[in-house]
Amino acid sequence: MPLHVYNTLSRAKEEFKPLQPGRVGIYVCGPTVYGHPHIGHAKSYVSFDAIIRYFRYLEYKVLYVQNITDVGHLTDDADEGEDKIEQRSKIDKVHPMQIAEEYTQSYFEDMDAMGVLRADIYPRATGHIIEQIQMVEELLRNGFAYEVDGSVYFDVRKFGEYGKLSGRVLDEMVAGTRVDKRSDKRHPADFALWKKAEPGHIMRWISPWGEGYPGWHIECSAMSMKYLGQQFDIHGGGMDNQFPHHECEIAQSECATGKPFVKYWLHNNLVTVNGHKMGKSLGNFITLKDAFKKYDPLVLRFFILQSHYRSTLDYSDQAVQGAQTGYEKLINTVRNLRDELTTHPPAERNTDVSSAVNSLKAKFLSAMNDDFNTPQAIAVLFDGVKEVNQLLGGDVKKAFPELNAFDAFFDNCAGEILGILPDKLDAQALEGGSLEPTLVELLLRVRDAARTEKAFALSDKIRDGLSQLGIIVEDRKDGTRWRKS
User: Fold this and answer.
1) Residue 93: which region, alpha, beta or left (left: phi > 0; alpha: psi -120 to 50)?
2) 317-424 sits in which CATH class?
3) The CATH number of domain 4-140+220-305 is 3.50.50.60
4) pLDDT greater than 50 at residue 24
5) In this structure, are residues 47 and 5 in contact, taking their beta carbons and an 8 Å threshold?
6) How far apart are CA 155 and CA 147, in angstroms?
7) Residue from 121, 103, 74, 317 nearest 215 by CA
8) Residue 427 reports pLDDT greater than 50
9) Is the model's pLDDT at 348 over the cut of 80?
10) How do residues 59-88 score in pLDDT, each as one tens digit?
11) Which residues make beta-bridge pairs with 273?
12) Nearest to residue 70, comparing CAs of 38, 40, 95?
């Protein structure tokens, strides 16, 4: 089956056909850097990381752009309130750019820990003020914007398709809402392209309309089109950005260029806590740095990918602990498999001999081709876990060719595509540096000494005790081996 993606714009799954064969241009809305990233951010960026990885696995040449919002994102996510970064800078009593720099680095640290590959380009809003001013000027020339007392607004009534992404009707957007008579907008739904800087506003730039700063929406349009062109394949982001942010991006971009903006719109769903959206503004968020104190970052990545990117993910310790159990089972199986292949390397490495592996890989790719269905893909990995454990419990030497094929399967699917295999698969790394592997080896040496002395009761007692702890002990001609059950 060819790759199909769910396009929010058409509200349907569509076969993916890029604008240029063999190439994919993708833009994903990046973080507003006024605090440490939380689990909700990770849901978005881990999901799109798996998508990017899969495109590259399919041998597309990908240009991935993700912005850094370091100015212009106001506290109500629209045109009112205070700039989020300036607000934080006043609390911390430092310059706004110091806030932006600190939390940009925090974002990269956390994404690196979760195995999120770096985008090709990370444009910052403050580094593209000229492009944003030029785009505002173009909208004014085209008659889609107007200036009032140093601020410039987009006239939504001039764009007949406003609402096509979110499915909202313009008249219904303002029905029942209180209209502020003091507003300088012509229509309540008009949005800011450029805001006049009031006294005391630190982040400001000179423009044809006086000193001010860009609106949140214009930033993404200007930066995405600078690096990907006036039309590109995929725009991604959180479902909460669908309206007004992405709706406004479409309006201003298509009115500036006269061309369709983006072919496919992909939106990840949200993380909830007790049924409520996780977010900084709600105060119910869990930072990744706090989560890392309890869970390995790759366990959290696995937890996120167990949920489809378009599905809501409810966060709880119980849910993450359940994911951790499954993840350890997967990783321990791959580790045991590679231990066998390392201990008894075959003469040749042949990865194409197993019809079972070929069947599993076909199922895995079929799941990914169905709108990046990572939970179904992970289920296929566990089918592989079951088969590998059966092979490890039998004649291992006879099964070497098939074990080699499974090793390649896990490397491609769990590692290259999903990004859930750690760089090191030794027992010490998997246990986070704990003493458990060392203690197991010590007990097995005591057991070997007991067997040599024919103290079989002690030997059996050690084996049974380890079994109760989930450690399987196997006595072989070449020595004693152990693995987690």
Assistant:
1) left
2) mainly alpha
3) no
4) yes
5) no
6) 10
7) 74
8) no
9) no
10) 999 999 999 998 866 655 556 667 888 888
11) 276
12) 95
